[in-house]
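Write out the 3D structure for:
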Amino acid sequence: MGWNSWNSGIPLSEQTVEQTIDAMVSSGMRDAGYRYVNLDAGWAAPTRGADGKLRTDPTEFPDGIAAVSSYAHDRGMLVGIYASPFDETCGQDLRIASKGQETVDAQTFADWRVDYLKYDWCRSDADHADQVQVFTAMRNALRATGRRIFYSINPNSSDDHLAGVKYDWSGIADMARTTADLVPVWRNTLPPIDSSDAFLTGTYLGVPDAFAASSTVAGKYHPGYSNDPDMLVVGLSRREFFVNHLAVNRAIIAEYQVTPDRLTKLREKLVLSDPQLDWRATAQPSLTESEQRVHFSLWSMLAAPLIAGNDVRDMTDSTRNILTNTDVIDVDQDSLVARAVPSAQDPRVLVKPLADGDVAVALVNTDEQAASIEVDATAVGLPRTPCYTVRDLWSHTDTTGAGQVSRTVAPHDVAMLRISPRCRQP
């Protein structure tokens, strides 16, 4: 659990990262379990130093990443960093990628007391054997440092955006992306256009589709390894998400020595007319509050990593309440690391067994009309008993009964329940 800078679009600097750490502490996020603060693409200087090592921009990080690590560690937080195994980091200069530099870069991260590495495949093509080789090389380099650094990889590319689904990466990494990028919409229904950029072609995923894609690899879940359906988009609007990415692309062209191929792809976005840009930014509605509850519930039912992507320095009470719902987080972080499966009686009912013998149940309504959804305790795997306790994980209320539960669920909403075979008085 933690936070990643990419979706928020905040400019990375020592100041903004420390502000983010402070906000995660003051908002209750740290105490709810969010401990990693991860610097995505944009933290590094455009070129390596004279010694061949990665370095930060001295203007933005005057004291370097080691100082950020100290600031985080002093506050009970951990620091993550971003790199790429091939030609270039996503959107930056090829000379700061790590292929062939694994040993020196891993040791640099360890010297900086970094706790997490996101290693992102940044080519449009993908050969599985090559990916195994380069991802394994960095894994070995990290292990050789002697420092425990959590290792997260993204093997997906535009040519093979299902690489995270098709292959079992659990022998290489601690976590692997399973899907194409998630955008803050219910379903991405943008029509394809003639572009090599996924954001413009409409191939990014909305919430239910990303959940469905990740469900196909759920059998690979086990303690110590996580499948990653992408960072959370709670607290992000469609417009700010789009504008943030445009701003990143403009900064890339202005500040970095971009390869010709990369420059061509970036310019596809920047040559769009203002009406086209506005249409792309507003063509689909942002997630409603109820849809964000569905999103957070589904990720927790998948035992997915909970990596916030909003600007936590400035978030609404609604966003904070969703992200810090410890009843739902407990389901996500349950030590059994089980994944949700649809009920045989009703696919709208997702069932997840928990380590203490309880069962988490999500009643998900993806339709456009309200729906009455019912569940029976014995039908979701609980033993027959005279009395069950049902806790509503969003209203934080408890009821007891004989095990038959019915909820009227609004359109694009969820009722998330924890059913116990023990009768507890409310």
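Residues 2-332 form a domain with the TIM Barrel fold (CATH 3.20.20.70).
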